[in-house]
Amino acid sequence: MSSQDFTPDPDFTFDFQVYDDLGEHQRWSTWLDCEPLCRGPEPRPDWVVTSQGAIDTELGILKTGKEADVFLLERADPHAPGSGVVMAAKRYRAPEHRSFHRSASYTEGRSMKRSRDERAVKRKSTFGRQVAAGEWAVSEWNALKRFHELGLPVPYPVQIDGTELLMEWVTHDGETAPRLAQTRPEPSLLASYFDQLRDAMATMAQAGLVHGDLSAYNILAAGERLVIIDLPQIVDLVGNINGMDFLMRDCANICGWFRQKGLESADEHELFDDLLAHAF
Fold first, then answer.
1. What's residue 110's pLDDT?
2. Are 147 and 112 in contact (CB under 8 A)?
3. Mean of the pLDDT values across residues 115-135?
4. Is residue 219 very low, low, confident or very high in pLDDT (cuts 50, 70, 90)?
5. Residue 134 has what pLDDT?
6. Which of 8, 33, 37, 185 has the most crowded Cβ, counting Cβ within 10 A?
7. Could you give the CA distance from residue 144 to residue 87 in angstroms, rounded to a whole number?
8. Mind listing the pLDDT tens digit for each residue in 244-274?
9. Measured CA distances, 32 to 24, 29, 105, 142, 145 (Å)
């Protein structure tokens, strides 16, 4: 039989597609590099890209901070046009380029798996600072998942890989949603915003949790909807001896801002009492 007469068995043939080399500011998707528990909770939104052939492309920096920087990252498969998504990539800084301002009072009641790591963090050694970065990233990842499962308005957590968190990019009219502090809502929307936050804080309190650093600067205004961000420091209301103090501070920060904008009925003591009723 000549080679021209040979017909390959279809069970032993397959199609493949060739991908171009990566360009500047690109990398292969890290989705499959992450363990299953390091990927977002199911059911996942349709926009999450899980293709093996997807490419991550840096689009620029969105926000800088003392502890972490947030970038915009596009994840797309070049052979699946229109299926790409832009996400927020929060990256906790390397030890030599960051200055953690989180007080130890936030971590009261938390424990690390290894006592060696805990001692290093307390000594603030180079290794301890590396451990701290990982701990804050994991803390925020766990908080995002927990809050998402509770139905709270937070960005959907896509994945965590080391000290990098990928999450939903919260937008309004195609642009990054502004912080609540940057807005001047008219009275009816202002009242709606307050109701949304009160409900969210009540859900947290009922779950025994406190944001711990809630203010108009870490809440995004996506049109008529508020989204709470910056969660690495969440506090156990009962397990942390400072839990009640953090809850009162969150109430004071929120109510103070709303009163400044004209909502005279925003009272931190009334809100605090209401949240305690949900907690106990």
1. 54
2. no
3. 53
4. very high
5. 81
6. 185
7. 15
8. 999 999 999 999 999 999 999 999 999 999 9
9. 21, 7, 36, 19, 19
Q: What token pair was written down for 171?
A: 């937008």
- Residue 164 has a pLDDT of 96
pLDDT of 117 reads 42
Among 101, 91, 72, 69, CA closest to 163:
91
Secondary structure in 3-state letters for the chain: CCHHHCCCCHHHCCCCCCCCCCCCCEEECCHHHCCHHHECCCCCCCCCCCCCCCEEEEEEEEEECCCEEEEEEEEECCCCCCCCEEEEEEEECCHHHCCCCCCHHHHCCCCCCCHHHHHHHHHCCHHHHHHHHHHHHHHHHHHHHHHHHCCCCCCCEEEEECCEEEEECCEECCEECCEHHHCCCCHHHHHHHHHHHHHHHHHHHHCCEECCCCCCCCEEEECCEEEECCCCCCEECCCCCCHHHHHHHHHHHHHHHHHHCCCCCCCHHHHHHHHHHHHC
List 27's β-bridge partners, or say none: 56
State whether the Cα torsion 170-38-59-43 is positive or negative: negative
Helix axis angle, 126-149 to 115-123, nearest 10°: 110
Q: Please choose, from the candidates 49, 51, 56, 54, the residue with its C-alpha nearest in 3D space to the C-alpha of residue 26.
A: 56
Give the whole-angstrom CA distance, residue 160 versus residue 121.
21
Q: Rounded mean pLDDT of the chain?
A: 87
Any long-range contacts for 109-116 (C-beta under 8 Å, 24+ apart)? 109/236, 109/239, 109/240, 109/241
